[in-house]
Q: What sequence folds into this?
């Protein structure tokens, strides 16, 4: 039969609830629904196949969206830059408490395991205990940390770390920044400035897998201000459904690089699109 | 009051000339949309909007109430179901109130401990703090630095990984100094970390707390209910604090903690500074949800 809107609506409603309960943002779901309707209405399908066709098309649509966002092999990027004699600079940003500092330590661990030399910039010069926290991680990882006093300019600390890396032939600089709400213009200007001063090779947005609709607001604003090139979603081990990944990819068309799956250094898993889609639709 | 807050959110129906089925359906749809965008638990949203629609269409307004006012009251009743039903905890003067912080990693426990220490001190209570997060690097420094601003003493043992023991030693340390409130900060944990939930049970045994405060990140989505339920089984939750409401999040997800535990929301966090703590106001909160 020829598919009409009402044929699709019933099936879409069930899929919509599944996506909502998986923390995909409502505006992303609306957009996916209208894309799907545009594609399917007027096409001819077997009546008993409608539910299946709609579901498969939605899954494919989301899969295509992830493919369009591209793939990033950060380790080979670092290798390429290393061969030019220059250090690779990565900065980490996101709202308060998402796991940026812990993620910086995990990435440092990953790089060290891959035989890269690393220096960490303690560019959160604001929050109580922030410098002590990252300094302890650096100590445990046996890595150099560049830090100044609380209240110092995060851009200056970052630049310091770059100078250190250049003069000591360090392969990679990881810049940990303070948590900030994207609703604070001053703090968003600050992260823009840090990135301008240091010109990172890669900017990573660190988001919380447990966040709901706010993920899309965070991703959109952070991307507008910083043009980050990829994201890491933390706390996936907390039984998060992972819809935040879809929201971020939809609104920024940048890839999810890794998932944080625990509090230890090794708890960083490359994002796998297929197993993600399987857990969402399977 | 809450009714007035809802009135503002219901301008469409209140300003209309007449109530008919189409308008009620439209109202239910608008409310559903707003609540879903605010992260309110999906099942709760469908329940609320279904009840709103059915009751608005089928119930006769009580005498003296216009049909419009009746609909506002129905929405008020339905939304009120989102808030906790247990009695709100009241700090008892003249005895020691032990408060245990509980919550997911990064939800704001340490920050809230300092904020609450200052808030309660300003309200006239003698407050002390125990830093029992033995896992996170720099946790004790973070807590001490913040509590210094409130002139509140923090007991902690850098390098001791036994959290229950630190609580025990801390309570002993503060024993004969007539404190009204002792706040106990703990490490973050979630429902899949069974060993950490077990640790929380051990901490509770030693602390024998009068109040367990569940600290919930205001940006949390649909997983809040499940997490809160698991926490409640570990240590019965007597109060909720929703943090980071200065973000763009509406906090609807965090509300599920109230339905999962029955506990009332006591305070909200509205920023990083030690003064950024407010008493919870249902009117403002629901207004933000629907806004
Ligand atoms: N279970 C789990 N916990 C995590 C993960 N990533 C980070 N955490 C925890 O989340 C909490 C917050 O991590 P931080 O690294 O301090 O977060 P942050 O973004 O740097 O916080 P601010 O600098 O204050 O904005 C810590 O208790 C971490 O151990 C993860 O993937 N899984
Ligand atoms: N903007 C804003 N930031 C907040 C609020 N409450 C806490 N924070 C920030 O959120 C981050 C996490 O807060 P913490 O107090 O370290 O959270 P926690 O629950 O103790 O974290 P763990 O001990 O790792 O589980 C910090 O950057 C805080 O400054 C709030 O209401 N608004
Ligand atoms: Mg940090
Ligand atoms: Mg803490």
A:
């Amino acid at each position: 039969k020829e598919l009409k809107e009402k044929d699709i609506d019933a099936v879409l409603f069930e899929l919509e609830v599944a996506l909502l309960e998986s923390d995909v943002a409502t505006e992303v779901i609306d957009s996916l629904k209208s894309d799907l309707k545009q594609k399917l209405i007027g096409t001819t399908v077997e009546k008993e196949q409608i539910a299946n066709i709609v579901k498969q098309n939605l899954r494919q649509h989301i899969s295509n969206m992830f493919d369009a966002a591209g793939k990033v092999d950060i380790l080979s990027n670092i290798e390429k830059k290393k061969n030019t004699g220059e250090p690779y600079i990565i900065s980490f940003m996101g709202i308060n408490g998402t796991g940026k500092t812990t993620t910086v330590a995990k990435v440092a661990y990953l790089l060290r395991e891959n035989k890269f030399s690393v220096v960490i910039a303690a560019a959160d010069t604001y929050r109580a205990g922030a410098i002590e926290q990252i300094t302890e991680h650096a100590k445990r990882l046996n890595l150099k940390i560049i830090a100044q006093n609380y209240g110092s300019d995060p851009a200056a600390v970052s630049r310091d770390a770059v100078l250190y890396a250049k003069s000591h032939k360090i392969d990679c600089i990881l810049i940990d920044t303070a948590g900030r709400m994207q609703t604070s213009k001053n703090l968003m200007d600050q992260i823009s400035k840090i990135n301008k001063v240091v010109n990172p090779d890669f900017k990573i947005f660190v988001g919380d897998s447990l966040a709901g609709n706010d993920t899309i607001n965070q991703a959109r604003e952070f991307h507008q201000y910083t043009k980050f090139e990829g994201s890491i979603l933390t706390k996936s081990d907390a039984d998060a459904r992972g819809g935040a990944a879809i929201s971020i990819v939809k609104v920024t068309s940048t890839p999810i690089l890794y998932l944080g799956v625990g509090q230890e250094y090794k708890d960083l898993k490359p994002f796998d699109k297929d197993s993600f889609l399987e857990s969402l639709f399977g | 009051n809450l009714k007035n807050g809802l009135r503002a959110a219901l301008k469409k129906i209140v300003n209309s000339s007449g109530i008919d089925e189409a308008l009620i359906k439209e109202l239910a749809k608008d409310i559903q949309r707003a609540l879903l965008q605010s992260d309110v638990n999906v099942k709760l949203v469908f329940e609320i909007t279904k009840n709103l629609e059915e009751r608005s269409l089928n119930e006769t307004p009580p005498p003296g109430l216009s049909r419009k006012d009746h609909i506002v009251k129905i929405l008020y009743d339905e939304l009120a179901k989102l808030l906790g039903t247990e009695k709100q905890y009241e700090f008892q003067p003249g005895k020691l109130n032990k408060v245990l912080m509980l919550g997911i990693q990064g939800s704001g426990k340490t920050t809230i401990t300092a904020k609450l220490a200052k808030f309660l001190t300003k309200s006239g209570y003698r407050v002390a703090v125990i830093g029992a997060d033995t896992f996170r690097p720099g946790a004790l420094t973070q807590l001490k630095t913040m509590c210094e601003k409130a002139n509140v003493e923090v007991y902690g043992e850098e390098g001791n990984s036994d959290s229950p023991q630190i609580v025990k030693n801390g309570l002993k340390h503060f024993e004969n100094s007539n404190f009204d409130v002792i706040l106990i900060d703990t490490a973050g944990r979630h429902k899949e970390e069974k060993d950490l939930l077990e640790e929380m049970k051990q901490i509770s045994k030693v602390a024998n707390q009068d109040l367990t405060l569940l600290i919930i990140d205001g940006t949390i989505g649909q997983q809040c209910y499940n997490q809160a339920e698991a926490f409640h089984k570990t240590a019965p939750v007597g109060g909720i604090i929703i943090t980071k409401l200065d973000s763009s999040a509406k906090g609807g997800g965090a509300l599920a903690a109230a339905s999962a535990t029955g506990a009332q929301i006591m305070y909200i966090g509205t920023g990083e500074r030690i003064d950024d703590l407010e008493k919870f106001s249902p009117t403002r909160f629901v207004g933000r949800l629907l806004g």
